Amino acid sequence: MGLSIWNSAVWLLLITGTLLGLSLPFGKLSAAAGVAPVIWAFVISFGAGAVLLAALLIRGKARRPDAARLRYFTITAAISYAFPNLLIMSAIPHLGAGFTGIMFTLSPVITLTLSVLLGMRRPSALGIAGIVVGFAGALVVSLTRGEAGRPAEAIWIIIGLAIPFSLACGNIYRTLDWPKDAGPIELAAGSHLASAAMLITVSLVLNGGVPLGPLANVPLMTLAQAAASAAMFAFFFRLQAVGGPVYLSQIGYVAAALGLVAGTVFLDERYQLATWAGAAIIMAGVAMTTKAQARR
Q1: How far is CA 87 from CA 53, 81, 82, 224, 284, in A?
Q2: Is the dihedral of CA 54, 57, 59, 61 positive or negative?
Q3: By the 8 A CB rule, do 240 and 273 touch?
Q4: What is the 3-state secondary structure (H, E, C) of 163-213?
Q5: What per-residue confidence (pLDDT) applies to 244?
Q6: Do 225 and 47 form a contact (C-beta atoms < 8 A)?
Q7: Would you say 229 and 87 are in contact if contact means Cβ atoms under 8 Å apart?
Q8: How far apart are CA 163 and CA 65, in angstroms?
Q9: 59 touches 53 (CB < 8 A)
Q10: Between the chain's N and C termini, which has fewer beta carbons within 10 Å?
């Protein structure tokens, strides 16, 4: 069963999207506990990188990175993790966990556009239709501007929209520049440790230090976030190899659904009926693309 999951794009999508979605409620709770956005983004990257590197060392599969891997680690860290995660953690207190998660859902259509322009593998007609349906649902949600009774400022909507653009560029880059003979766990570990180093630098510039103290207010959640991140990114890079960049980008649909439900059930967020209608349209898009992937 384990091996079949490791080779199944559909299972990898659902698992990766679910683990990604956990970062949304965790992000809101960490902000409420006084943890700076850059520090929580650091927890995500350092937790994932450290755990995965330890796994490589235990298995005797860690190796010195060459120039191609160092380039891959650095660029992937910047556009896929450090920058978008900093935006996500900064936006959550203003947009809500559920609404911020919806921003993920714009990534597939941007990824698809870039992949077609670059002549990469494209989905079938059903897959493209699913992405278009999902994008239509995301547009419906974006027009509601956050939680009911608490419309977000336009600047935070714009910041939120930068998230999927960065993620889409990362989806394409990771496929185009995948180092020869590199495994998914190796790439995940190196990229996230590079991201953690970047975020520490950002914290030093913005805060004049690295304020880790507030993490003591949420020790169990910090450990849970680190564990979820490590598991997610092991599956994430495997999904990149099995499903390709366009299919991978749809983890945002799964994460957005989880974020919307978790925000409502556990964080007392309230959304308009149009928001839920948009989320249902998004899920219809996911069902279509999943069916298209299964056919392939």
Answers
A1: 26, 10, 9, 21, 27
A2: positive
A3: no
A4: HHHHHHHHHHHHHHCCCCCCCHHHHHHHHHHHHHHHHHHHHHHHHCCCCCH
A5: 80
A6: yes
A7: no
A8: 29
A9: no
A10: N
Rounded to 10 deg, the angle between the 219-248 and 154-176 helix axes is 60
Number of other residues whose CB lies within 10 A of the CB of residue 99? 30
Alpha helices in the chain (DSSP H): 2-6, 9-32, 37-58, 67-76, 83-95, 97-103, 107-117, 125-142, 154-176, 184-207, 219-248, 251-266, 273-295
| Per-residue pLDDT tens digits for 67-113 | 999 999 999 999 999 999 899 888 888 877 777 777 777 777 778 77
Q: Which letter does DSSP use for residue 215 in this model?
A: G
191 within 8 A of 80, measured Cβ to Cβ: yes
Helix (H, G, I), strand (E, B) or coil at 118: coil
The per-residue pLDDT for 146 is 55
**Residue tagged 């020869």 (tokens):** 180
Q: What is the pTM of this model?
A: 0.80
Which tokens sit at 199?
């975020």
Helix (H, G, I), strand (E, B) or coil at 273: helix
CA atoms within 13 A on the CB side of 223: 4
Distance in angstroms (rounded) separating the CA atoms of residues 12 and 116:
23
Torsion of CA 66, 114, 123, 246, to 10 degrees: 50
Residues in the chain: 296
* One-letter identity of residue 216: A
Q: Which two tokens stand for residue 39?
A: 């520090």
Q: Is 147 helix (H, G, I), strand (E, B) or coil?
A: strand
Indicate the residue type of 252. Answer: G
Token pair listed for 73: 């680690």
Tokens of 24: 């949304």
**pLDDT tens per residue, range 106-130:** 777 778 778 877 877 666 888 788 8
